[in-house]
Amino acid sequence: MASSSSTNNSTGTHTTAWDKSSLPDQIETFDDYKRLYALSVDDPNQFWKMAAQRLDWYQFPTKIKNTEFDCRTKRGVEIKWFEDGLINVCYNCIDRHIEKDPKAAEKTAIIFEPDTPTETHHRITYGELLLSVKKFANVLKKHGIKKGDRVTIYMPMVVETCIALLACARIGAIHSVVFGGFSANSVAERISDCESSIVITSDFGVRGGKCIPLKSKIDQAVAMPQCTTVKTVLVFQRNYGLENIKDDCSGQRSSLEWTDGRDFWVHEELKAVDDNCPPEPMNAEDPLFILYTSGSTGKPKGILHTTGGYLTYVSLTFKYVFAYEPGEVYMCTADVGWITGHSYVVYGPLSNQAITVVFEGIPTYPDVSRCWNIVDKHKINIFYTAPTAIRSLMAHNDSFVTRTSRQSLRLLGTVGEPINPEAWRWYHEVVGGGRCSIVDTWWQTETGGFMITPIPNLWGLEGGSATLPFFGIQTQIVDKESHLPLDPPSKGELCIRDSWPGQARSLYRNHKRFVEVYFEPYPGYYFSGDGCEIKENGYHWITGRVDDVLVISGHNIGTAEVESALVQHSGVSEAAVVGYPDRVKNQGMYCFVTLKDNVEPVEELRKDLTKTVRDIIGAHVFPDIIHFAPNLPKTRSGKIMRRILRKIVEPDIHNLGDTSTLNDPAVVDELIKTSPRTK
Ligand code: WTA
């Protein structure tokens, strides 16, 4: 299977064919993991140099690691990897495979599985992908886009989205993908933050049998006063298999508004460009993309990833953690609008010349067998999804799974939230038939790629634990109160001790906030915002967010964003949003809302508030409980005590903690009496 075979020599010690000047093709034994892990920590320059050698560079870096994690030093937080290297991400994802082996041009790069199973799927070869990317890159160039320009991408889950990302990477433009569920307001906020002059979108998307208007949302976004930079909107046409879709998509197309001189159909533009577009050699530390993620406070953070380190990291993690072998078919259900889609639908798989499935739809449409039918249809070997999806599927009769074969599956993966042991077992036993190992991968938008994860079959698994750190990742539990690092076994807040190449370098044009959020809480460490327990055996158990970010169905939602949306409603005077445990979605969203005088707390208003939140942030954000509360618990200085609200909704009302600073303790009793969670 792999090129580095392991044998036991006559003295009984373990040896490997790995020659120490390059990384092995796969990690075959726990001893190999331990040896390489030790090297990655003791000599990161040597380890990551070997990892970088897996890629093709115009100029191989002479400097490998140059990082400072400590915000208290004169230099301050600065992260540079491979800083004098020159490389192109798109070239590494497509061209080089074909240059090395012309037959690769005929091999499948992407399998597109449309929303409706009866629509024809497509297979895109590496050769076809290259041509499409070059041509689309030329369309971008024709519209004046050059190295360093920001390009906002607001697309459904289709192949064209991957083409758009790769085309940006080819010419050195910085992409900023905004998930297609976000509202016009959220898109406008993200466009204006990074000042993109161009938006790539689609006339509409199709999901779960429904048409999702995208272009019209862009029209609204671009018309908003804060959105002043957009000169061009490129519009892909989604035009296959529409006869199968119940919604009236053609109606949507005919009612599209068009601004001449600003809006362009991509299929028209493609007619006017040629096939030749050389990749732009980029410095390793040139930005590759911005991806906005929710923070505990204020507006979304523009997480900035750069070129050489990011690709080195996602490429290596994809190869080792999925133990990917040539020819295997890999499917990740994440949308390209999130980091999982960036790293493990597009860049990780393609840089390894993998076959990656792009699935337009949802796991429950047309029924809950959908994923397993896709597995059988495309003979998928590796399947990667979120615990939320698993929990929603396991709520149905097992026959939806067992009526499918799933014999092709070799490995299963999860990401996005802690997976509860019950869901883990169901995934393992029912979906994987007890045959397939599971990789529970803990990581974040900020980390670029997998951080804590099993490598298949090297060590025992415990359902619910992401197990051990990947190469180069030094985890550290820190005590919240004392700020002291704790040796394992320990429980506390999860930090990372030193840099790894895939980590975000900054927040776009806001390095100060980057340092404040990730490096000031525990000086000398990267702070993840997650709680974690490391047990005696070294296994890591993630306990969830410790800040004001909710993780609902795998989506991160800042409570501050929802609060600010709620108070934009004319009837609301104040709002406080907290999460509570939910069996399927990981967390539910609980909104305490204080109304203005003379506003009646009627049912209609609840619907109205829900609509306000969805209109302002996006359709994937949904208050589960709206509790009209005449008063909120506050300190004497007027600060809402969210800690107490969290206890009420958990509910854990006998451990409210210190309430001595409360202005009016009766407020808490009243909330406990009226909360649906404490009834
Ligand atoms: C959570 C997604 C437990 C965690 C890649 C993290 C997880 C946040 C896991 C990042 C996991 C992700 N086990 N929790 N395997 N994976 N999380 O930025 O709270 O969308 O901080 O990146 O998801 O979410 P993000």
Automatic annotation (TrEMBL):
InterPro entries: Ac_CoA_lig, ACAS_N, AMP-bd_C, AMP-bd_C_sf, AMP-binding_CS, AMP-dep_synth/lig_dom, ANL_N_sf
Keywords, alphabetical: ATP-binding, Ligase, Nucleotide-binding
A cellular component term, taken from the record's GO annotations: cytosol
Name of the protein described by the UniProt record: Acetyl-coenzyme A synthetase
Family label: Belongs to the ATP-dependent AMP-binding enzyme family.
Molecular function via GO: acetate-CoA ligase activity; AMP binding; ATP binding
Domain AMP-binding enzyme C-terminal: start-end pairs: 561-639
Keyword set includes ATP-binding: yes
EC number assigned by the record: 6.2.1.1
Top class in the EC scheme: ligase
SUPFAM superfamilies the record matches: Acetyl-CoA synthetase-like (SSF56801)
Reaction(s) catalysed (UniProt annotation): acetate + ATP + CoA = acetyl-CoA + AMP + diphosphate
Domain Acetyl-coenzyme A synthetase N-terminal positions: 33-93
Pfam family, one: AMP-binding_C
AMP-dependent synthetase/ligase domain span: 104-498
Organism: Rotaria socialis
Biological processes, Gene Ontology terms: acetyl-CoA biosynthetic process from acetate
PROSITE patterns listed in its UniProt record: AMP_BINDING
